[in-house]
């Protein structure tokens, strides 16, 4: 078992580009930039930005859905069905309220935790049994903010949070080849103890 599809979650459009909810896009953009000849291009049939690349000697698809977050499953489901990619070969990268900025966690399955992008992907794939790379953005309550969650995720992180999120993206990028090779235990140990 290995990863054949890496999906970064976010909302399309310049007004959302720098918001916390787009952390998944940030990681996939960074990943594409590190891979020779890898360029995300608009692909209408998958309603997303798509690239085919090679990681650790394996063919991997990168995807950023161009639907809004709560319809991410349309894009993920279409690409996974077309290329016969099983749910446990999918890695979804997303922002996570329950983890502080600077921390990233890799896990397989589990509930959506209220994340609408994950809910829609679960519905489209017919299972929760896919991999998630959770990039911590913190929760407004744990940061003593009175902001509503929906408002919080659709705003830019403060400068100090942005630095921490970027560090967690860098740490995450280092374990992507391990995940692609199916070395999930090693990837988790490296990411969770770094």
UniProtKB/TrEMBL annotation:
Keyword check for Zinc-finger: no
Reactions catalysed, as given in the entry: an N-acyl-L-alpha-aminoacyl-tRNA + H2O = an N-acyl-L-amino acid + a tRNA + H(+)
Protein family per UniProt: Belongs to the PTH family.
Keyword presence, tRNA-binding: yes
Job of this protein: Hydrolyzes ribosome-free peptidyl-tRNAs (with 1 or more amino acids incorporated), which drop off the ribosome during protein synthesis, or as a result of ribosome stalling. Catalyzes the release of premature peptidyl moieties from peptidyl-tRNA molecules trapped in stalled 50S ribosomal subunits, and thus maintains levels of free tRNAs and 50S ribosomes.
Highest taxon of source: Bacteria
Annotated positions for site Discriminates between blocked and unblocked aminoacyl-tRNA: 11
UniProt xrefs under NCBIfam families: pth (TIGR00447)
MF GO annotations: peptidyl-tRNA hydrolase activity
Keywords: Cytoplasm, Hydrolase, RNA-binding, tRNA-binding
Protein name from the UniProt record: Peptidyl-tRNA hydrolase
Pfam families: Pept_tRNA_hydro
Compartment(s) of residence: Cytoplasm
Catalytic-site annotation from UniProt: 21
Subunit and partners: Monomer.
Main location class: cytoplasm
Transmembrane residue ranges: none
The EC number(s) this enzyme carries: 3.1.1.29
Positions bearing the site annotation: Stabilizes the basic form of H active site to accept a proton: 95
Residues given in the record as tRNA binding sites: 16, 68, 70, 116
């Amino acid at each position: 078992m290995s990863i054949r599809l890496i999906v970064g979650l976010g909302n399309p459009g310049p007004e959302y580009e720098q918001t916390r909810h787009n952390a998944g896009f940030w990681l996939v953009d960074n990943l594409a930039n590190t891979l020779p000849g890898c360029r995300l291009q608009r692909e209408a049939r998958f309603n997303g930005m798509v690239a085919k690349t090679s990681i650790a000697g394996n063919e991997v698809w990168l995807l950023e859905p161009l639907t809004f977050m709560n319809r991410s499953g349309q894009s993920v489901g279409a690409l996974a069905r077309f290329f016969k990619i099983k749910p446990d070969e999918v890695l979804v990268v997303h922002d996570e309220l329950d983890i502080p900025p600077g921390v990233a966690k890799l896990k397989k399955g589990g509930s959506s935790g209220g994340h609408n992008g994950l809910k829609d992907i679960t519905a489209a794939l017919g299972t929760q049994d896919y991999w998630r790379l959770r990039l911590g953005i913190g929760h407004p309550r744990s940061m003593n903010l009175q902001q509503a969650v929906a408002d919080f995720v659709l705003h830019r992180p403060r400068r100090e949070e942005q630095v921490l999120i970027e560090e967690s993206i860098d740490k995450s990028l280092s374990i992507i080849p391990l995940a692609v090779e199916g070395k999930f235990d090693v990837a988790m140990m490296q990411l969770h103890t770094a």
